[in-house]
Amino acid sequence: MKLISFSVTNYRSITTAHKIDLSNLTVLVGKNNEGKSNLLTALNTAMSVIMLNADSRMSSTGMYLRRFRLWDRGDYDWERDFPLQFQNRKRGLESIFNLIFRLEGKEVEEFHNETHLRGNEDIPIRIKFGRYRKYEIEVPKKGSSSYNKKSAQIMAFISKRISFNYIKAVRTENMAMEALMDIIKEELSGLENNPEYNKAQAKIMQLQNEVLNKISRSLIEPLKVFLPNITDVKIVKDAKPYLGRSYTGDFDVIINDGTPTSINFKGDGIKSLVSLAILKERRTTKSASIIAIEEPESHLHSGAIHSLCEVINKISENSQVILTTHNPLFVQQNYINSNIVVDKGKAYPAKNVAEIREILGVLPADNLKNANKVLVVEGEDDVISLSKILPLKSEKIARALKNNTLIIQPLHGVSNLSHLLFDLKRSLCKYVALLDNDKAGKDAFDKASKEGLISPSEVKFTICNGIPEAEFEDCIKTSSYENLLFNKFGVQLNCKEFKGKSKWSDRLKNVFLSQGSQWNDQIEKKVKNLIAENLPNDLNEILISQKSGFIDGLVTIIEAML
Predict the structure, then answer these.
(1) What's the CA gap between 20 and 349, in Å, rounded?
(2) CA atoms of 384 and 379, how far apart (whole Å)
(3) Looking at the domain 1-167+311-362, which fold is it?
(4) DSSP character string of 362-397
(5) Among residues 533, 520, 542, 541, which one has the least CA distance to residue 484?
(6) Structural domain spans, the chain
(7) pTM assigned to the model
(8) Fewer CB in a 10 Å sphere around the end CB: N or C, the chain?
């Protein structure tokens, strides 16, 4: 089962919300005070009604009509939550929530068996909140009143098959414990069907501890992603009796990162990470899970946010995740429609990256204003050379470079790789990189990879057959520039110093020095730029075919990115 869409009307700052189609990972973006958090709070309120009222009695009209009795996580107060500017009008005095759930696989048949209702796989639920703390629930299926008459059974069917967690932006130890309590209670509920439990009440505490220890062990590895010094996590429970479905007793989480300490005494950042790590490892007994997270980046430093992005993507593989954020790192660049813009009381799918940049206040560099695809290279000479070579290799790349949707960005030193990639991510850019196949290039890639900034599928190295270490100039035919170097610098390349298996700049250094010419970083830069600026317009005159295979590989990943 999945929640495939949600909308709310007349709730706090949201006066008109378009239907929000939900995917596995849906990102709500917008300026402050535009209603992102209110949308998540509204969803929490609606889901709380469904979960807590699955077996409530219906009114004579076939609808729920009861005094509101939600816990404080989903409480609704008309005076507070209905838009103030509309409270004096005579009609339309309700907050309206619409949700559509979709049955999957065998659930369609299970739904018929449990409710004796037939229909398609979509189940719409409408919840209306009015004054006097009352609400109504409807199942507005077209052409059938039988759905409303069996609302209680439908609510029960949904609540048994879907779990919901709401994590607020301010995540104290209570928020972490709340998420953990849900897991503990759900895991422990399975003991009611355990024969050993029915036979021996005295064994219950032992079985509970086994479950708690299992959960404790499952938390160690995900928490190490953020807190590498952790050696142990233990959930402890005071020894109060277990009575029916009531899980009595208090739980605490003890985190050992050198000194065993209660989560109550950890900082806000660690408390936040514990909440999210718990959800990452959660294996709910229900068939579906929805997790709403408000500003996951709260209390975290930039390094932890990168790791958190990976954790949330992992969570979304098994659960639907809906989050609000001000951080562009969470934007879904491959699925633009999964980013919901919340602005001026309305919510709608984003049309393009530029719209998201504007709403988040992202100010990319001038050369990135129109581009959202970037080829990262080491030096300015690489920019010049590839600007000529790539259009000759690919018409698709030629068009992208011409209309500035693709730019080639130099690092001005490979040690700047991680810093530049971090900035590109924040500017909502996709990127690939071409790095020299030498120690500096490999070390820079390893560092950026460990920081979660680049993957092997996003990089190519200047690997040239027969050369252990190589740079871009190793694939260029000497004939295209040997006369140029003689005329400008008075050096000849037809000598033993230019032969061998060292990389190009090392061999050229030996040539210059052996012929009495100076060599330093400034001269090397001038030589490389001179060669790049004077490349022929024919690929056959530029590239050594046996040593330029990496360029074909680069073309492939650039075209895939485009």
Answers:
(1) 7
(2) 9
(3) Rossmann fold (3.40.50)
(4) ----GGGSS--EEEEESSHHHHHHHHHHHHHH-HHH
(5) 533
(6) 1-167+311-362, 170-285, 363-562
(7) 0.59
(8) C
